Amino acid sequence: MSGLAVEQPPGPGIGSRTTRQARQWLPAAAVLVLGLGLWEGLVAAFAVQRFLLPPPSDILQTFWNERGTLWGAGWYTFKEAVGGFAIGCSAGVLFALVVARWTLLRVAVMPYAIAASAIPIIAFAPITNQWFGLLNPLSKMMIAAVLCFFPVFVNTLRGLTSVRTSSIELMRSYAAGELAIFRRVRFPNALPYIFSALKVASVLAMIGAVVAEYFGGSQEALGVQIRNSAALFAFETAWAAILVASVLGVAFYLAIALIEHATLDWHPSARAAD
Amino acid sequence: MTEAAAVSLRQVGRTFAAGNVVALEAIDLEIQPREFISLIGPSGCGKSTLLRIIGDLIQPSSGEVVVNGKTAHRARLDRDYGIVFQDAVLYDWRTVARNIALPLELAGWDRARREQRVGEMLQLVELTGFEKRHPWELSGGMQQRVSIARALSFSPALLLMDEPFGALDEMTRERLNAELLGIWAETGSTVVFVTHSIAEAVFLSTRVAVMSARPGRITQIVPIDLPQPRTQATREDPSFFELVTRVRAALHGGSGRDTDLSLAEAE
Lengths: 274, 267
Hints:
Chain A has helices at residues 17-45, 56-65, 67-101, 103-116, 125-132, 137-161, 165-173, 178-214, 222-231, 235-263, 268-272. By secondary structure, chain A is mainly α.
């Protein structure tokens, strides 16, 4: 009956919802402020060379001063990441749908799919640069796409096939065919698996796009700017660009998590996380 | 018009290829319309397998199965039966109402008709007001009532139940037993009910088929002539205890070993 109730430890003086939430976030916020303070202090105290580690105040200063260029570059790379994510994830889901349908195909393909997750895909970046052209965003998208493909494929397949026998028997008792069982049982059953893979893939896509750009690309690209700034001793710019990449990566992840929350409102785990 | 048997089994056998295990051997059983028949027996006697053979979810290795005057396969495709498992098997992504409506969707009912029927079914299992809830928000007993409502939603003439109350506590089980008898009287369907509990089988059934294990066989059929409708008073009637004793004796005599009925069936 009380599946909605999340256990709250009875503490003294529990205030409103917002107060409770603030109390939950407070420790993490304190760690952030403390960490930045420590960083700033140690860099000053030990007179750390700025090519080793610039102080956070300088990085934030650069982050603000060069915001136009940095966010422009960030947007350019972000589009590559999203494009690669879209290609890789759709291919992963589609391929899993096909493979799940035929057991023989699954048995034949699965070992390779799992082994392929161990391949350092990023090592192919110089090759995709050759294939699609150094300045073509597609060369970076393909790296991001291949990175996204494997976790999405493996997880979707797992979700489609880990259905309880009785669930399938029940559908068959209603004279449901394979297609109806797929649509009404296997696919909804796979959705939580798909979303956890999509969250992993969103992070991989951003990593793939930035790192692939280290091997060369448009001057507008974030990865190229990070590499060039570091080579030109503009370390504050390099760090500020990394900050942009991080902010975009986190935003991408959160966007997927939000869609997951809205889509899987039926899922007990979504409820428990409320 | 002569009334044909609801279920007719002739020399039905089932051997599992793995290890050449004989799960069922030479099962003969005629189930009349409106009967409430229980299959009872020790773990591994194949009672759940037999239920699935009637439902065309498992194929028999030998023998003939006729359901509603047709092959079991045809009967399944015609949606002639509803099934309830021990686990409610509700789909988490569907609300209570949409779980009950699932077989109606598959049968191509339009929305208005579906909604009306779901309302009627919720009333039948006394869950009106819970249509928008999700399965995990309900207790085990309520989930099983949703499962029964779903099995009955398209008014099948035959209801197959595989230990539907096996996972519930004693009090909930007794209440649902009474509810099930009410539903059975109201809908006039035929029920084939698999259980581990002698008292449950005697309380509910018009006949109890006692099975033995390895190979799975029907050793005895005990007619239960307790008056209808059955109430709490039935459970305290001396003839109820007599019948419980008879079924227990049949179970012990049937196998001579492995009569531990408390064990969950592992097949």
